[in-house]
Amino acid sequence: MRRTSNLIIPGRLLHTAGSDGSSGMTKAGSGGRGRECCPMNKKLLKGMKVLNVPPCIKDHMRCMLTGKIKCGTFWDKILGHNERAFCSFCKKKQNNNVIETEEHMWLGCENSRQAQVWNMTKRTWQKSTDREWPTISLCLIRGAAALAFEEDFDKDSERLCILITMTIWAIWKSKLKNSINNLDIAPNEMTQVLKDLISDLVRRNWNKTHFMEEGRWANRQRELQQLWADSCLTKFDPKTGPTVNFS
């Protein structure tokens, strides 16, 4: 049986937040249904700084928080590129002009296979913990860097943050390939991008421990084994290094 845990998320906030950008926190499922999220607060900024993902993904998350993702009405301002305001997947498959909002791109598009990659992320999560997979929303995505579980002793909060940000990056890369480069996306290409991202991150972090001074490397390796669920999700072989099992 999976645990139902209180997930603390930033973001069920109104645009009328304080002028200093500060905001409160709320428990998932505690109400506060609302209009738009305004997640720029100190906890988010600190979480973004220590987020253990490649710099390009950090920059992408900052763009999300500051409203600089190049999609939808952004292209109305660019002469000669107005067509890019529409979802390229929906245009090609159904000949529909659907405005490509962030909500549509990350969660709503039925033609980009984004649901397929989220399902793989969910399965990866379920192999690493007995906590329930949270309901993914635009608010939760934007607040990913500051997500926190109560009574988190297994680095579930950090793992969830990494999985969400990498899933968003995999969807974004496929979107660019399809819309900007006008190339088709293979059926399992998006999920493979995510698998490669996770495997590469785990291996890189593990390899870095070999260059740490004595005393630190052993602690760091134990942290990585805990983060990536040794023997459940990832096999840490002393000779060959870590291998993530996505099956």
Q: How would you sum up this structure, described in words?
A:
The chain has 247 residues and is mainly alpha-helical. It has one domain (7-184). 45% of the residues lie in helices and 7% in strands. The chain is built from 9 helices and 5 strands, in the order ββααααααβαααββ. The longest helix has 24 residues, at 156-179. It starts with 6 loop residues before the first strand and ends with a strand.
Class per helix and strand makeup: mainly alpha
Helicity level: 40-55%
Number of helices: 9
User: How many β strands by DSSP?
Assistant: 5
Strand content: 5-15%
C-alpha end-to-end distance? 21 Å
Q: Radius of gyration in whole Å, from Cα?
A: 19 Å
Topology:
Elements: E1 7-10, E2 25-27, H1 42-50, H2 55-65, H3 88-94, H4 102-108, H5 114-128, H6 138-142, E3 148-149, H7 156-179, H8 189-208, H9 216-227, E4 234-237, E5 241-244
Antiparallel strand pairs: 1-2, 1-3, 4-5
Helix pairs in contact: 5-7, 7-8
